Amino acid sequence: MNKKAVEWLYQQLPELVDQGVLPAESAERIRKYYGPVDGNTGTRTFLVIFGVIGALLVGLGIILILAHNWAQLSKLNRLAVSLSLLVAAQVLAGGVLWFKRDSTAWREGAATLLMLMVGAAMALVGQTYHLVEDADVFLLTWMLLSLPVVYLLNSASVAILYTVGITFWAGSHYGLSKQWVWGLLGVVLPHYWGLLKHNRYANTTAISWWVLTVCFYICFTVAFSNYLAGLGFLVFSALFSVTYLSGELGFISPDQGRRLPFTAVGLAGSIGLTFILTFNEVWRNVALAWSSVLPAAWVIAAVLLVLVAAGTVRLIKNRKREAGKFAALPWVVGLAYLIQSYDHSGLGATLVLNVYMLGLSISLIAQGVREFHLGIVNLGMIMLAALIVARFFDIDVSFVVRGVIFVLLGIGFLAANVVLVRRKAGWKNEK
User: Where would you find the membrane-spanning parts of this chain (predicted)?
Assistant: First the structure.
């Protein structure tokens, strides 16, 4: 339920209690369930953002001032300065916990400064005594030492910085050690889940989940890139569909699906991947990697396809069949892979994906017209225009074939237009 709906519900509760429709205890339980509705969410978000940026600038400024005079300090003085900065940030965080626990701006600012001072102290002490020379070890240690700050101060900004830092750490690793990223992301997930449960309408919650979703895709690519050769497009098409279905079905948050990133990321990924797969050159490269598919790729693809199938069934039960056209992408890609196993030229697979994108575009335009939704019409028009331009300049297809296809499609659109005009005239005559 969105904020306006909650505000309306809160306005109705006193009358419902007075009329005896709802017991007072039930009204109080409803208020506790949905929590307070802050009418100044935008202002509070700006305060939090400015607080975090201010803390970052103060911390970075202190580091620059120290760097200017660092060479003139003795080792003991360097150690004293480094620890003093850390202790000062901890004292500030303790003061905020004691006196300003309910102020989001103070908590986020103090937490960000403390995280920055932890990294600065590690770097300064390490540089003085030559303790840490590996950047990956430094980054991982910094992130793990900052993790308690996420929960002690309930800080979304530190959780975001931790997630981004772990993503950078995963990008610089090779082999099985990259799989540790799932455990490192798992330890911060309770914080993200808590945001959804206790502060679901806040802009901070939406921003945090956007960052987490984007970082998840980067980590997934980094962690499994060596195992997906030959089946990468199938796996990612299924992953985008699972993400899209999570948003449409509200698996994560039933009443906030549009603000969270799942539908948008799944939709953008599905459309972008479909467009890429309409090029024949892509499928010729798939044919080269087809013989090197690892068992791990089959397992990952099977798990994701099962999730897509379960989500699609749920979608049909919820009568959201229009949304099913995007969830069909992994099955279309699977069919293209099957054709590819017999036709290594990639022509069959390319034709399947072109037909799918053409049908998807037309379906979206028809849906938009039917529902009087200009955004859906524009999305279908953009997809159709992109497909037409790509095929017009596609050097892999001969001029004759392209010409015939364009003429046939043009005739088809003109015929459809004539049919629609005659039906519309028929409806008017009936009226």
Answer: 46-67, 79-99, 105-125, 137-170, 176-195, 207-225, 231-252, 264-283, 295-316, 323-340, 346-365, 372-393, 399-421
Tokens 């620890």 correspond to 83
DSSP 36: -
The Cα–Cα gap between 165 and 186 comes to 14
Render pLDDT for 336-360 as a digit per residue (tens, 0 to 9).
Answer: 888 888 877 778 888 899 899 988 8
pLDDT value, residue 238: 92
Mind listing the pLDDT tens digit for each residue in 166-183? 998 887 776 667 788 899
Question: Cβ(222)–Cβ(170) under 8 Å?
Answer: yes
Give the single-character DSSP code of 179. G
Predicted structure pTM score: 0.74
Q: Is 326 exposed, middle or buried (0-12, 13-18, 19+ CB in 10 A)?
A: buried
Buried b (16+ CB within 10 A) or exposed e, 257-275: bebbbbbbbbbebbbebbe
Residue 6 in tokens: 């909650």
What is the percentage of the chain residues whose pLDDT exceeds 70?
A: 81
Across 197-226, average pLDDT: 85
Q: How far apart are the first and last CA of the chain?
A: 41
Total count of residues recorded for the chain: 431
* Residue ranges of domains in the chain: 1-37, 228-353, 400-424
Q: Which residue has the higher pLDDT, 73 or 3?
A: 73
Q: CA distances (Å), 86 to each of 56, 91, 92, 171, 280, in order? A: 14, 9, 10, 29, 57
Where does residue 364 rank: exposed (0-12), middle (13-18), buried (19+ CB within 10 A)?
buried
Q: Which residues contact 134 (CB under 8 A, 6 or more apart)?
A: none
- Do residues 235 and 299 make contact, with C-beta atoms less than 8 angstroms apart? no
pLDDT of residue 199: 76
